[in-house]
Structure formats: structure tokens, C-alpha cells
Amino acid sequence: MNSFNKVIVVFGLVLLATSCADKSKPNYQYMPNMYESVGYEAYGEADFLPNGMEAKMPVENTISRGWIPYGIENTPEGKEIARLNPSPLDSLQSVSNLAKGKELYGIYCAICHGPKGKGQGTLVKREKILGVPSYADAARNITVGTAYHTVQYGLNSMGSYASQMNTEEMWQVSEYVMALKQDLIK
Fold first, then answer.
1. What is the largest CA-CA distance in the chain?
2. How many Cβ atoms sit within 10 Å of the Cβ of residue 180?
3. CATH architecture of 94-185
4. 181: closest CA among 149, 136, 130, 150?
5. How confident is the model over 74-127, as pLDDT tens digits?
6. Directed axis angle between helix 144-153 and helix 167-185, to 10°?
């Protein structure tokens, strides 16, 4: 019976300890930062940063590193000025530029314009969008400058791709568009 009494006493102590404990809070916090995290305000004051704020807005009239601003306006007159612009890419690397342009064209442009530039992409065939022109259309009078202007700013229902591609990639796609136009005219 002696061991039975010991079991009863231990069981009673466990009941007493659990009934007095506050179940809403743990007794010990081994990693308090996991239980009670510090919430920081994204655009508020931050004491731990040297400038006193985090996520500041950039200074006015600054540009992102690696981005070159396009000096021609998004107007019909600007597009006519762009018509005269040649590609600034190195002509010695034209094979690699066309290969990269073909890859980017397949990613961004072929879904609407088609793989050969005839204006018969997957979305046109499924009648999701209409009115995509062929590059061989003589009335379009496409040059590498106007192709770049269109990729930079968009035209009609086509939006701008300036946020998806950098300046060099947009020129590579424009050169590839001109290569497709030459293939269609032949």
C-alpha cells in the first residue's frame, strides 16, 4: 500500500499544479521573439537604421542602375522621330543579338504575333485578341526604331514591355522583328 499512497500523492500534486497554472500564457518562454514578434512599420521611423527610416522613396529625377532612359516621347511625332533611329547594338555581335532576340520574341511576342511574325499567334487563332498585323504589311512601314518605340511604349492594345526587358533586350527583339520582316518579304 505504501507505493499506492505515493502514486496518489504524485497524482494530487500534478492536479494541483495544473489547476493553478495560467493556460493562456506559457510558464517559460525559451525564444520570446518567436512568441511576441516586433512589428515594424514599412515607411515609419526605424531606430535601428542609420538614416532613421526604412524603405525610403528614391530621390526625385533619379533612375535605376542599369536602366537607360529613352529620349523620345510617346507621341505620334515621337514615333516618326524613332523611325530614323538605328539600333545601337554592336553589329559584330549580330548573330548573338538575333539569337537572344529570337528567344525573347518567343517568350513575349510569339503568343500574339506568331512565331514567323504573320500575326497568327496562339491567342489570335483562338480569337482571344484580334487585329494583330503581319510584319510584311507594307502599310505598316516597320523600322528597327519604330519596333523599339512600340516595345518601349506599346501601341493600341499592345502594352509596354519596358518593365519586362532591359534596353539591350528590347533592341535585340526589335532587330529580330526586322529579320522576320525580311523573311516574310522574300
1. 108
2. 24
3. Orthogonal Bundle (1.10)
4. 136
5. 888 988 888 888 888 876 567 888 899 999 999 999 998 888 888 888 888 888
6. 130
